[in-house]
UniProtKB/TrEMBL annotation:
It comes from the Bacteria. Keywords: ATP-binding, Nucleotide-binding. It comes from Palleniella muris. The lineage of its organism: Bacteria, Pseudomonadati, Bacteroidota, Bacteroidia, Bacteroidales. This is ABC transporter ATP-binding protein. The keyword Nucleotide-binding applies.
Length: 648
């Protein structure tokens, strides 16, 4: 359908592509992949006609329509969501007005037998058929379905677009492009501003669509569910794989191993040839052979090996203090701006847990994180455990870096111990290898600053990580490095993210935000997705009427399960609250005792590290007995907490 022929692009005399060619066929679903800076977004701009290549051609057949969604675009803010989205149907609306005018003309004319009247009827019929093929009067319903699929509620449709954030306005632009039904869709990071539900809706939409798709995305689950072909931009050329991304990863690894073997064989051949030339250069009897070898050497085309895959690099958080067993306890926490964000939030996060905050944008995920950080006021009680050292990655974290430092200096200032010897490797894993490490922070792009802020966080000694959308500007290799580092982290983690592949295997508990409530789900992200889809299916299915004979006096149906407070009498509630207070006091006493004993253990550790202390049996005995007491107190603490949870 679309032919890219001998495309060559240069920036500052450096070739970005070196005469690449490929064809986009009908119903192709292409994932465009490659390292940051390889030219993925540039290629989409060239295909869409926004940018001109240095040489080469992009051939698009007449009548073929192209829809292009860039990462960033200027958006109008002078109308409502509904009216702005309706612009996608401008041709259909104009056609409808023309049909109305023709219909009015036919009603007013009386020359039914004339040739002009018959021509008018024929034009009206043809235009009406085309109008109905384009959806006719159904476009309003289709528009609402698309906007709701992308996360807008029905009341949102009549709100001014100026009231929405940039991410929500990008959703409006995506809806307009989808509703225009182009023959080919070019999507540059379409999931950056979507939540999990909207991403799943977009996956289904693209799967059912008849158009071709070329997309750039770092969401592995999304491109695996959408694409059937993978084009990699590497070393200025392309490699075309007719498979999904996961299969491409396997094939690419095999291909690189073949490249390495061929490269090593070629280097051996070059070395042997050079050795022969040097050995016999000045012997007259070997002059002919030497000249032959020199010509052979000149004809050798160097084998290029793809960039080294640094995803295998492993980072480990530096050691830190042991935190309290309950880093976060929320009791009836609520937050209200002009509207209610959430209320009655009751949650307990234990030490070592890795949890995800999920839900639609605007439901309060980042707001609760800010409450935990103490950045904004809130109602209710929120307790932070003892010895908590928080490492916080906010969505605007990149703006807090020192502009005057270089990339290397920024990391060198926080790196400690043996990590200092591996700074260049770590920077390379996050695409700051070579000269890029000497760039000043003020010259970095937004995505580069975010990656640098993430590396800085990875090297700080903390025992509680809070990550708010950490993967938005990370490529797949960088995400893999980050994910492995978090999995190996023995502290507590809260992740706010819509990246299913990143969360899969990382979190063991999910908190869903929605409708002013926060609900807890035990299990991983896909467990929550299955549970969520099942709940939606149950809600959408009408319940069968149950015929149950009930006494006349029970004419009020019980619609909700009574709470514990409703069942208990006043005296029982008073007794229960008394027990809760007593247990909370006991828990604090035990925690204080454990903290004191742990300090003593550290002192004994220091003594045992000395030659004199290592042979002092009294110290060894005290160390052993103190450890036993800590274990016993920890067991008692766990029992008390279980009792407390049972009462609540």
């Amino acid at each position: 359908m679309i032919s890219i022929d001998n495309l060559h692009v240069e920036f500052s005399a450096r070739p970005l592509y070196d005469h690449i060619s490929f064809v986009i066929n009908d119903r192709d679903r292409i994932a465009l992949v490659g390292k940051n800076g390889a030219g993925k977004s540039t290629l989409l701009k060239i295909i869409s006609g926004i940018q001109t290549p240095t040489s080469g051609n992009v051939t698009i057949p007449n009548g073929t329509t192209v829809g292009y969604l860039p990462q960033v675009m200027k958006i109008q803010d002078d109308t409502t969501v509904r009216d702005e989205t309706r612009k996608a149907f401008s041709d259909t609306i104009q056609m409808g007005k023309k049909l109305e005018a023709m219909q009015q003309e036919m009603a007013e004319r009386t020359d039914y037998e004339s040739r002009e009247y018959m021509d008018l009827v024929e034009r009206f019929t043809n235009l009406h058929d085309r109008y109905m093929m384009l959806g006719g009067e159904q476009y309003e319903a289709e528009m609402e379905r698309t906007l709701q699929g992308l996360g807008f509620s029905r009341p949102d449709l009549d709100r001014p677009t100026a009231e929405f954030s940039g991410g929500w306005r990008m959703r409006i632009e995506l809806a307009k492009i989808l509703l225009q039904k182009p023959d080919i869709l070019l999507l540059d990071e379409p999931t950056n501003h979507l939540d999990i539900e909207s991403i799943q809706w977009l996956e289904q939409y693209l799967a059912q669509s008849s158009c071709a798709v070329v997309l750039v995305s770092h969401d592995r689950a999304f491109i695996n569910n959408v694409t059937n072909r993978t084009i990699e931009i590497v070393c200025g050329h392309i490699e075309d794989y007719k498979v999904k991304y996961n299969e491409y990863v396997v094939l690419r690894k095999e291909r690189r191993e073949q490249q390495l073997r061929a490269y090593e064989n070629q280097q051996k051949e070059i070395a042997d040839t050079k050795a022969f030339i040097e050995r016999f250069r000045y012997q007259a009897t070997k002059a002919v052979q030497v000249q032959q070898r020199i010509r052979q050497l000149e004809k050798i085309v160097p084998i290029e090996v793809d960039e080294v895959d640094t995803s295998a690099l492993r980072l480990k958080f530096p050691p830190c203090l042991r935190s309290g067993d309950y880093p976060v306890i929320c009791e009836d926490v609520e937050k209200t701006y002009q509207h209610l964000v959430f209320e009655n939030v009751n949650l307990i996060i234990k030490r070592g847990e890795k949890v995800a905050f999920v839900g639609r944008n605007g439901e309060g995920k980042s707001t609760l994180v800010k409450c935990i950080m103490g950045e904004i006021p809130f109602g209710g009680t929120l307790k932070i455990g003892h010895n908590i050292q928080i490492g916080y990655f906010a969505q605007n974290q990149a703006q807090m870096l020192d502009d005057e430092l270089t990339v290397f200096e920024t990391i060198d200032r926080v790196a400690k111990g043996e990590v200092r010897l591996r700074i260049n490797d770590i920077l390379g894993a996050f695409m700051f290898g070579g000269e890029a490490s000497e760039k000043k922070v003020k010259f970095l792009s937004g995505g580069e600053r975010s990656r640098l802020a993430m590396i800085r966080l990875l090297l700080e000694p903390v025992n509680f990580l809070i990550l708010d959308e950490p993967t938005n500007h990370l490529d797949m290799q960088s995400k893999d490095v980050l994910k492995e580092a978090i999995k190996a982290f023995d502290g507590t983690v809260i992740v706010v993210s819509h990246d299913r592949e990143f969360l899969d295997g990382l979190v063991d508990k999910v908190y869903e935000f929605g409708g002013g409530k926060v609900r807890e789900y035990l299990g991983g992200i896909y467990d929550w997705i299955r549970s969520h889809e099942q709940s939606k299916a149950e809600i959408s299915q009408p319940k069968a009427k149950e015929v149950v004979e009930t006494p006349v006096q029970n004419d009020v149906a019980q619609t909700e399960e009574p709470s514990k407070d409703d069942i208990l009498s006043y005296a029982e509630r008073k007794e229960r609250n008394k027990k809760i207070s007593k247990l909370e006091k006991s828990i604090k006493e035990v925690e204080g005792k454990i903290e004191t004993l742990e300090k003593r253990i550290k002192e004994l550790d220091a003594v045992l590290c000395s030659p004199e202390g290592a042979s002092d049996m009294a110290v060894v005995s005290e160390y052993t007995s103190t450890k036993q007491v800590i274990d016993a107190e920890t067991t008692r603490w766990e029992q008390l907490c279980e009792e407390l949870e049972g009462l609540r």
